[in-house]
């Protein structure tokens, strides 16, 4: 399920790969939530523009790391794992 604004900057879109429950407890404003554990995760990725830049995070960086690999195999060129939620907050404050 996609929630929030589509991006936190004009340069890239931030995707939170955590579950909706995790996302609702602690989220970064302006991110979209695509649940890595959802059976529809790949279908949701297919809807995204492959020409945009994406920064992904989850709770620890593991799910978002796997999601980045998936996106690269699907033809996305500009994807980056920015780690867990704490690392993502620090990265986005730069």
Description:
The protein has 94 residues and is α/β, with parallel strands linked by helices. The protein has a single domain (13-93), classed as Oxidized Rhodanese, domain 1, CATH 3.40.250.10. The chain is 35% helix and 14% strand. It is built from four helices and four strands, in the order βαβαβαβα. The protein has helices at residues 20-25, 41-46, 62-73, 85-93; strands at residues 13-16, 32-33, 54-57, 79-81. Strands 2-1-3-4 form a four-stranded parallel β-sheet, with helices on both faces. The longest helix has 12 residues, at 62-73. The termini are far apart. The model is unreliable at 1-7 (pLDDT under 50).
Provide a compact summary of the structure:
The chain has 94 residues and is an alpha/beta fold. 35% of the residues lie in helices and 14% in strands. α3 links the parallel β3 and β4.
Keywords:
globular, single chain, 94 residues, alpha/beta, four-stranded parallel sheet
